[in-house]
Amino acid sequence: MKRTLLTTAALMAFAAPTFAAETYTLDSSHSQIIFSYDHLGFSTTYGMFSGFAGEIQFDAENPAASSVSVSMPVMSMFTGWEQRDAHFMSADFFEASADEMVSFTSTGIEVTGDNTALITGDLTLNGVTQSVVLDAKMNKADMHPMAQKPWLGFDATTTLIRSDYGVGNFAPFVGDEVNVIISIEAQAES
Known about the structure:
mainly beta; eight-stranded antiparallel β-barrel; 1 helix; 10 strands; globular
């Protein structure tokens, strides 16, 4: 569930002809991580994370030299059912405290197309750090029409195995494989 990968976020680094190397800050109001998993084979359960903080160092001339760092509170997870959210925060899963964070820090970017890349990074969740790969796509790099500053938008996907992060209870009834969809916007700091 925390595949948030981050990451959240995490997505950045493709060819954007408009901007030079620059620092972008995540727009928390337009960034989210959606996760889903199988429940007993009967349904797919969905949830999301919010409360992002992070930045992208975006190098338009050399996108592979870009980087991303994102974090969010574990307790920002929302599944639409309070009892499930409370269960996820219990000792059965995260035993999360209010200050516990999910984080993603890129370690490498492989540009795969004009607006696509594979972003490898370290995802830390539940005190465990694992390398994950985000399949990312730059949606748009342009001036934001209201903010009148450079803006980036990315989508990314990955699949995580929750038992790799010590939250594998009730598998296989509650699916161990978690699909993650990330969508973020980021604004230039200058």
